[in-house]
Amino acid sequence: MLLEGRTAVVYGGAGRVGGAVARAFAGEGARVFLAGRTRARLEAVAGEIGAAGGSAEFAEVDALDELAVDAHADAVAAEAGGIDVAFNAISHGDVHGLPLLELPFEDFARPVATALRAHFLTTRAAARHMARRGSGVIMTITATTARLSIPQVGGTGVAFDAIESQCRQWACELGGHGVRVVWLQTTGLPEAIAGSDVLQPGYGTGSAAMTRDELIAWNVGRTQLGRLITLAEVGRAAAFLASDHAAAMTAAGLNLTCGQAPGR
Questions:
Q1: Would you say residue 65 has pLDDT above 50?
Q2: Given this model, what pLDDT does residue 14 score?
Q3: Could you give phi then psi for residue 56, rounded to 5 degrees?
């Protein structure tokens, strides 16, 4: 198993991405600590992991609350003997579908401020324990909006771009302590898109709105493989990236976009 004997904290562990990553970590032998704001959903993910033979515990933690994040990391490290992997998958409160000319500044800035604060606080909390032990992996997830020009995505692209920049800074400061900082870069997760009865923004396609199927088809058409990544594939990639098989990788992202090239 790739993560046998490791301890992993997954912030946003009750969400679709966080849950998929947590399941993959546990499936590879890690002891998983789920952190999030919704107890019922955390409990459900932990139950699924336990039913599959894995180990998972959970705690209600607001990733924007500095004291709560620090206290939780301290408690995990004390109980498990340290933290080997920390994955941040919290949502940012993005607003899509409006041109910037019509978007309130608060809606533009919210995902940027949320992403930067949550990533900084969770990284610092886990890295303090990792640095003392001389090893560890800090991970998060971004999207192609960090490097492509896509209209009507509000502050999402700026937020992901800023996360990647912050990751590079953490990497150069933590590398000497044996800690790696990496991220997964994805695009268009079909399982994370709302149901068919919810219209999606047009994203500059010329249409005011798209159905779920139309949005998926639009994303697929922008890839070289002619498909989109699944949540299960995200989880498996995260487990690989957290393992010793990726020990030489830091300050970089793993491209999981199915070949969505810049400018497409």
A1: yes
A2: 96
A3: -150, 135
DSSP sequence for 115-150: HHHHHHHHHHHHHHHHHHHT-EEEEEEEEGGGTS--
pLDDT of residue 264: 43
Average pLDDT over residues 99-123: 97
Contact 218, 204 (CB under 8 A): no
222: left (phi over 0), alpha (psi -120 to 50) or beta: alpha
Upper half-sphere CA count for residue 65 (Cβ side, 13 Å): 13
At 190, the pLDDT band (50, 70, 90 cuts) reads confident
How far are the Cα atoms of 22, 170, 180 from residue 131, in angstroms, in the given order?
Answer: 23, 12, 10
Which backbone phi and psi does 254 adopt, to 5 degrees?
-95, 120
In angstroms, rounded to a whole number, what is the distance separating the alpha carbons of residues 162 and 150? 16
Mean pLDDT (whole number) for 156-177: 97
**CA-CA-CA-CA dihedral for 177, 139, 161, 206, to nearest 10:** 170
Comparing CA positions, the residue from 189, 257, 253 lying closest to residue 224 is 257
CA angle 163-212-87, nearest 5°? 25
pLDDT band at residue 236, thresholds of 50, 70 and 90?
very high
Record the pTM.
Answer: 0.95
pLDDT confidence of residue 261:
65
What is the rounded distance in angstroms from the CA atom of residue 114 to the CA atom of residue 111?
A: 5
Assigned fold of 7-255: Rossmann fold (3.40.50)
Q: Where are the domains of the chain?
A: 7-255
